[in-house]
Amino acid sequence: MTFLTAQRIGVSYGDVPILERVDLRVEEGALVTIVGASGCGKSTFLRILLGQERATSGTIAINGVPIAAEPDAGRGIVFQRYSVFPHLTVLGNLMLPAEFEGSRVLGRLFGRRRRAAREAAEAMMDKIGLDHARDRYPAQLSGGMQQRLAIGQALLKRPRVLLLDEPFGALDPGTRRDMQAMLIDLWRETGMTVFMVTHDIQEAFHLGTRLLVFDKIRHDPQFPAAYGATITYDIPLRGQHMSPDAGAFRLDAEPAVTNAGNPFLSRATSEETQP
Ligand SMILES: Nc1ncnc2c1ncn2[C@@H]1O[C@H](COP(=O)(O)OP(=O)(O)OP(=O)(O)O)[C@@H](O)[C@H]1O
Q1: I want to staple 235 with a disulfide (CB 3.0 to 4.6 A). Which of 34, 52, 170, 211 is the partner?
Q2: Same domain (yes/no): 68, 109
Q3: Closest CA to 45 of 26, 63, 28, 64
Q4: Which SMART domains match (predicted)?
Q5: Structural domain tally of the chain?
Q6: Which residue's CA is the nearest one to ligand 1's atom 25?
Q7: Closest ligand 1 atom to the C-alpha of 41?
Q8: Per-residue confidence at 172, pLDDT binned at 50, 70, 90?
Q9: Does 258 lie in the same domain as 126?
Q10: Above 50 in pLDDT, residue 262?
Q11: Pocket of ligand 1 contains residue 40 by CB under 6 Å
Q12: Final residue in a domain of this structure, among 136, 158, 180
């Protein structure tokens, strides 16, 4: 059954269209990687999925229900730049989601609930390999450690959808590979649906069970900003990390590259060919 449905999403800033007619259906548990030229609207699409911004037109629904007008605990996001709190230690950062949730006014928990939050934070610290750094502040951590912390913090809210905006873009190749492996482990373990923007096409193919390419279909050389981008390719993948029976990809699945289901693409292409 379709988990997330985006229908005819359009986003404009002022009269500049950024995205147009984005249609998408995603099964629960997919790991969707997203690539596209710089500035084509990938981060904008993630913000719309998060509910941080409203689309100018179209709808997004999860299990048939339009998503909330504001971000909620069901959707977590991790950005390329470290989004952890600099004045809190690793442990403090990992306890924060529970403290915010359990005590919106004071932002602090006491007694049994605090102990439970601490236990959850310690288990996550172990999972993301930061138990040896529990009392360090973000400034005392490497880039990879800070990103692990940010992912751990997002996961503690047990999101059903995790949005990653170039999460490993600032990391060296070795750390990046470790982080990719950690993400795959956590994705398998939680069954969450992941959308990940990356500029690294190899990473997109390696990690994804599905790859989306955002691009403009229509171009006006006189007015480069006249048209927005949409999904031009939607490619089912057998992530290199997947075992053959993992179920996210079947060898007898539909065509490896598909844009035929995008009516806008067919129409725009014919428009383009007109004199
Ligand atoms: N709040 C805003 N107001 C006006 N324009 C915006 C706003 N946010 C984004 N834009 C513009 O929308 C376009 C798409 O931005 P977005 O960050 O989504 O692109 P992107 O594909 O993620 O780019 P990159 O790969 O470089 O991160 C850009 O031209 C950007 O300048």
Answers
A1: 211
A2: no
A3: 26
A4: AAA
A5: 2
A6: 38
A7: 18
A8: confident
A9: no
A10: no
A11: yes
A12: 158
What is the percentage of the chain residues whose pLDDT exceeds 90? 46
CA distance 58 to 214: 17
- Is residue 214 located within the same domain as residue 266? yes
Which residue range is the domain that position 1 belongs to? 1-39+52-74+160-172+192-275
| Same domain for 124 and 89 | yes
Q: What is the mean pLDDT of the chain?
A: 81
Q: Is residue 267 part of a domain?
A: yes
pLDDT value, residue 80:
62
Residues 18 and 128 in one domain: no
| Cβ of 202 less than 6 Å from ligand 1 | no
The atom of ligand 1 lying closest to the CA of 47 is 18
Query: Do 130 and 117 share a domain, yes or no?
Result: yes
Render the burial of 89-114: b for 16+ CB within 10 Å, e for the rest. bbbbbbbbbbbeebeeeeeebeeeeb
pTM assigned to the model? 0.82
| Mutation test residue for ligand 1: of 43, 197, 213, the one with most atoms within 8 Å of CB | 43
- The answer to whether position 221 is within a domain reads yes
Sign of the four-CA dihedral 199, 201, 202, 206: positive
Average pLDDT over residues 70-88: 73
Angle at 168 between CA 165 and CA 173, to 5 degrees: 155
Whether 68 and 135 map to the same domain: the answer is: no
Closest residue by Cα to atom 23, ligand 1, is: 39
* Predicted local confidence at residue 244, as pLDDT: 45
